[in-house]
Amino acid sequence: MINQMAQASPVAPRTIRVLWLDGVRGISILWIAYFHLFLTYANKRYPWGLDKHYFASFVAKCAPESAVETLGCIAKGIFVAFSQFGFHAVGVFVVMSGFGLTYSLAKTGDPEAGWSGWYRARVLRLFPMYWVAHVIYLVSPFQARLEPLDYRFVLSFLGDRVYPPEIIHYFNAALWYFGLILGLYLLFPLLFRLLQKIGPAWFLILCGFETLASRYLLLSVIPMVGYYLQGASFLGRLWEFALGMVIGMQFRRRPAAVESFLFDRSTLLAGIVIYTLGLYSYGSLLTYTATDALIGTGLFVILAHVARAFGKLGRTEAAIAYVGSYSYGLYLIHQPYVIYFGARVRTLSIPVFLVFACVLITILTLVAMPLERYVNQITNRLLGPGAKSIAPQPQIS
Predict the structure, then answer these.
(1) Model pTM score
(2) Alpha carbons 82 and 193: distance in angstroms, whole number
């Protein structure tokens, strides 16, 4: 991949449309919101899609009485597994975060206002909407309140989603991602300089080795709370972020070459294979060291192709890309709502539940997007520019 990109001749600077970038984020956030809703609705009534002999267990529980019913059970099992795998899209967000940060700097090689200004912009982008999500939780009805308000809420409001361990999934479990991305942002200047100095190939090798080594240590040598392995410790998710950084730098320099490679059929096939290996890597502690790297890498490629395919649907592509542009707000606020409503619709059939899910997630999306936009505008007005999107907008130059 790196060699093919390096050999391609640079294209002239121009304004281009890359709706698939925000389309990937839009698909990811909608899948994550649906996953949290489905998980609550299902309430463990179905086998877990990552368990061994999943389809055999699912069909046995389904108890079909004919070949046609067996096929129907298998189809239902595929649908349930798809619904259960929505959490994998978080890895795609990690890739896109590395992409967006690096893309914005790759043109000049340095932040316009220095690294202090860069950090200020990141704080203005991350914290205001994060604080608003906390306030909404305090005052809004129809939210799941599974834990009491205590000192952890204050720590969370201040930005701590890492320690103590019981704060990682406190009151709004989706906020664990905030702790992950904050750690990666703190490390980003060092990573960016390292990428500039040693080049993309060695950078990926080094970050890949660090990711596997740190995950192995957390799994087998100094076992810790599983949440740290999944992402509360950013070192275990470094590969996905580093991959996004490399793609972002290459896309800034040679967008046509990157798109030509990424959207080749052989790349899609490779992405499917890598993602499948990621699914099977859950089988043992040793292979689990590579799980998130495989899942994030393979699924990014797959969703990029899916987002690109939406280009044939006209307004649908633009709508999903717009959702992706403002996915941060939806990510921060959705989970307490979908848990609340998901627990109240468990008696619905799957077809009726799907209609309900589309309506609920659409409402949450239509509320979260303008809310995030207004929070960014108010932040800019009061504190100056800084609330820029983490990933590039659909139109870039």
Answers:
(1) 0.89
(2) 39
Beta partners for 16? 396
Backbone angles phi, psi at 362, to 5 degrees: -65, -45
Residues in the chain: 397
Q: Which two tokens stand for residue 160?
A: 């701590």
For 308, the token pair is 């690109």
Contact (CB, 8 A) for 245 and 195: yes
- CA gap 321, 327 in Å, rounded: 10
What is the gyration radius of the CA atoms in the chain, in angstroms? Answer: 21
**CA nearest neighbour of 23 among 302, 234, 338:** 302
Distance CA 330, CA 226 (A): 25
Residue 112 backbone phi and psi in degrees, to 5: -60, -40
Q: How far apart are CA 308 and CA 79, in angstroms?
A: 23
The dihedrals phi and psi of 395, each to the nearest 5 degrees, come to -105, 125
The pLDDT profile of the chain, 397 residues, written as one tens digit per residue, is 444 433 443 333 333 447 899 999 999 999 999 999 999 999 999 999 988 889 888 888 888 888 888 898 999 999 999 999 999 999 999 999 999 999 989 888 889 889 999 999 999 999 999 999 999 999 999 999 999 999 999 999 999 998 888 899 999 999 999 999 999 999 999 999 999 999 999 999 999 999 999 888 888 777 666 667 776 678 889 999 999 999 999 999 999 999 999 999 999 999 999 999 999 999 888 899 999 999 999 999 999 999 999 888 878 888 999 999 999 999 999 999 999 999 999 999 999 999 999 999 999 999 999 999 999 999 988 887 654 444 333 333 2
Q: At 358, list the tokens.
A: 């589309």
Distance CA 185, CA 126 (A): 10
Cα separation, 319 vs 105, in Å, equals 27
